[in-house]
Amino acid sequence: MEIISDGPTLVLHGAFDVRSTWEVRAAIYEVLDGPDDEVVIDMTHVTTIDVTALRLLAVATRHAWLNGHHLMIRNPGPAVRRMAHLARLAHALEVERAAATA
């Protein structure tokens, strides 16, 4: 898993699973401890995800909300969305809506 920090945005690359959960968790909470109210997790380049990673995102979303921040998931691919629904965690994640095109 490669994590690129761009201010309040974290861009994840690769497989997001139990092996990378602690690394991603540390990066998310570091950004949440910063001054920005809006934090974005860009998952455009996440190839696979497991339930452990989804639980981390759900807990981080709740933690952000309880502490006056807003955590948003950007561009989750079909595999990520499908796993979130199968794990019954889709309701616990806030996914950024794409702007409508003309």
From TrEMBL:
Q: Which residues form the STAS domain?
A: 1-102
Q: Which InterPro entries match?
A: MlaB-like_STAS, STAS_dom, STAS_dom_sf
Task: State the name under which the record lists this protein.
Answer: Anti-sigma factor antagonist
Taxonomic source organism: Nocardioides glacieisoli
Higher taxonomy: Bacteria, Bacillati, Actinomycetota, Actinomycetes, Propionibacteriales
